[in-house]
Write a structure and sequence with these properties.
By secondary structure, this protein is an alpha/beta fold. The chain is built from 13 helices and 14 strands.
């Protein structure tokens, strides 16, 4: 009888008991709102902002209601005006083009390469053609492009780089943390990310004016001095009068949950990479499966794995056969949006008729799999054995 896998691909580890106890304390206090503090008291959100900024080695961090919200106000705070063009990867998730649309901007899409990273030659071409001043770069599924080359292009063409680090919290390029290369960066703390508050996010920057605008955008009213990392009061003199409030603050309940998880981030990143290494080894047993090549300069966090099957005739049938044996795969080649997965030609609201053949060709053959920390190395052996068997039967 064929082997089956029994665990859930969407079951996360429990919130640490220390975080639960502190969350109960916050609820007992009734002080869930980030600005509900006594004189001289520092909120849980402000403490989290300090701790996350310190962990990343940047000056400022703003805790937000979601990663998508952080991207929206990062664009606004960096100066993107309605009608302007923002460059972004064609391979990303819907909140990225959604943030561009929310800022009133137009998206210019860039091809990806065989390693799921932005195609640098096409990126330069789009920079020349559009004269855009903004690149919202998605480190999709944890794949870091050559960040030295990316920052060189951005500097050459006077483009503000905003990093979407939803999948790269804890990753780095040549020892420099993901999220510290651009003018601003955005992170997610949604349930399936590297720290989990259900929903939530961060905006980080070293730019005083960007942070001041982002703080006002987030809904600080005139309480901006209560933030954990905040520019000098004089920076707000005009910004507080000229910047609209979009109300997207994080609350103390989510912050206290995240503070405890942040302490374990580096340990958990190593655990994810152990799973990734085991999954990679299992998948490489099939000559029909192609995996991305990870550059030596990249320190990644393998919380998911992507692979291609070039000779596969029926991707949907392959997915269904794996699912019947308990292995949940996502397919970015599906022409219809499904669950969390969609591709750029599903976002018709962008009004973008550009055809990106290399991206479509890669996504047509790409499968994606979560690696939750509720799995272990033995699970990876079972899962990859199932995938390899079904690939063998399907090609």
């Amino acid at each position: 009888m064929p082997i089956q896998f029994e665990k859930s691909f969407t079951q996360q580890e429990p919130i640490p008991e220390t975080a639960i106890a502190k969350a109960v304390d916050v609820m007992r206090s009734g002080k869930l709102h980030r600005y509900n503090t006594a004189p001289g008291e520092e909120s849980e959100v402000a403490r989290l902002e300090k701790e996350f900024a310190d962990s990343l080695g940047v000056n400022f961090c703003l805790a937000c209601a979601s990663g998508g919200y952080a991207m929206h106000i990062a664009l606004k705070a960096c100066g993107a005006k309605p009608g302007e063009t923002v460059i972004t990867n064609a391979f990303t998730l819907a909140p990225v083009p959604g943030a561009i649309d929310n800022a009133g901007c137009k998206a210019a899409l860039v091809e990806i390469d065989n390693n799921y990273c932005v195609d640098l030659k096409h990126l330069e071409q789009v920079m020349r053609q559009t004269d855009s001043k903004f690149f919202l770069m998605s480190h999709m599924r944890g794949h870091l492009a050559d960040m030295d080359a990316v920052t060189h292009l951005c500097n050459t063409y006077n483009v503000s780089l905003i990093e979407d680090c939803a999948h790269t919290m804890g990753a780095s390029w040549n020892g420099k943390p993901s999220g510290s290369f651009g003018r601003a960066a955005c992170f997610s703390t949604q349930t399936y990310k590297h720290i989990n508050s259900g929903e939530g996010g961060f905006l980080t920057t070293n730019d005083d004016e960007v942070m001041a605008k982002a703080i006002i955008h987030s809904g600080s009213y005139m309480l901006y001095e209560r933030h954990g990392t905040v520019p000098e009061p004089s920076v707000f003199d005009d910004i507080k009068l000229d910047t609209p409030n979009y109300s997207g603050r994080m609350d103390n309940l989510r912050a206290v949950i995240l503070r405890e998880q942040l302490k374990e981030l580096s340990v958990n990143c190593k655990r994810w990479n152990q799973l990734y290494t085991a999954a990679e080894a299992g998948l490489r047993k099939s000559n029909a499966i192609t995996l991305s090549e990870r550059p030596a300069a990249e320190t990644y966090v393998g919380s998911s794995i992507q692979f291609r099957v070039d000779a596969l005739e029926n991707a949907q049938d392959f997915i269904e056969k794996c699912a019947a044996r308990g292995v949940e795969l996502k397919w970015f080649g599906n022409k219809e949006p499904h669950g969390f997965t969609s591709r750029y030609d599903s976002w018709r609201y962008l009004g973008n008729s550009t055809v990106l053949p290399n991206t479509l060709n890669i996504l047509d053959r790409t499968f994606d799999m979560r690696l939750p920390l509720t799995f272990n190395k033995d699970d990876m052996q079972t899962i990859t054995e199932i995938i390899v068997e079904e690939v063998t039967h399907s090609v």
